UniProtKB/TrEMBL annotation:
Name recorded for this polypeptide: 4-oxalocrotonate decarboxylase
Amino acid sequence: MIGPDIAGIAETLGTAADTATAVGQLAAETGLDVDAAYAVQTALVQRRLDRGERLVGLKMGLTSKAKMAQVGVDEVIWGRLTDTMRIPDGGTIDVADFIHPRVEPEVAFLLDRLPEPGEPVGDFTDAVRAVAPAIELIDSRYANFTFSLPDVIADNTSAGAFVIGPWSPVPDGLDNLGVLLEIDGRVAQVGSTAAILGDPRRALDEGIRLAGRHGVRLRSGWVFLAGAATAAVPLRAGAHVRAVVERLGTASLRSSS
Ligand code: OOG
Ligand code: MG
């Protein structure tokens, strides 16, 4: 039997992102399972690397119940981050570059010395140099932000852009810090880092394990997004967005056009 057209699906999703034009779901009709979907993601990200972008990190998705419920998919997933997705803290994003962007509050790790594949992380402060509040902009390439598990994996887990706030040394506890997402000074979402797999440190174990299954090893110097603590909120033009994480501070962005 001939398998799904990995390169063709990656091209469709890449063009959808480049032109900010939604496409229909692809996995069911092309027979894409989870493994094939990660192969599409690899090809989709390779397309970016081929035009000069650099891999700068890994992001986790659907590590909180709020996110799983919002998109109707209940498996933890991971995707790749490249340098052009990173927006400076306080920087501006043009919503016209995206299809239906949403923003969500995250916790970011700056990776340091990572265990060998198959080994537990062990001492978190060995593996992580610093932590920061962050905002992720997600933008599903599928119409109506509706997808199955293999669809969202193939689409690089809806990765669009991200902002990292100031880095701090790893605090003693990360497992129950208050999280706020504010739009134009109003609270849009409230949560806790406990929503991220009970403790965002667990997201790193999951990332190492799940990415390792596909031969991907996290690197020192990479950014790691642990996954949103709350549901995501649509990003409209002319908005000022702040993510506030207790003890870690604030990350912010503005949107234009
Ligand atoms: C998938 C990406 C999920 C998170 O933090 O949970 C994600 C989506 O919601 O479109 O980035
Ligand atoms: Mg996210």
